[in-house]
Amino acid sequence: MTENTPPDVRPGQVWADNDPRSAGRTFRVISITAGGRVQCVVLTPPTAWPATRVGHSVSIAARRLRPTARGYRLVSDAPGTTA
User: Could you tell me if 43 and 57 are in contact, meaning their C-beta atoms sit under 8 angstroms apart?
Assistant: First the structure.
């Protein structure tokens, strides 16, 4: 983790996009880079995107992984973690 990464972001978590322009998009966290970026894979593309986007890699600024109107919300925690 870096100082730019929220402490609760971990590989294996599933996050959803809160932005109405990307409604329905979910992704799984694969890794967190030293530069404060989160590498993810798309699980469900937004309704405006073609279904072929499933499985594509995306990079998101870790600071955006928070429940704001244009941020993201945690859908499920990483397997094997306890609350």
Answer: no
Domain contains 7: no
- Structural domains in the chain (count): 1
Could you tell me the pTM of the whole model? 0.79
Output the six-digit token pair for 80.
Answer: 């094997």
The identity of residue 20, as a single letter, is P
Residue-wise pLDDT for 47-60, tens only, equals 777 676 778 898 99
Domain of residue 40 covers 14-76
Percent of the chain with pLDDT over 70: 83
Asked if residue 8 is part of any domain, the answer here is: no
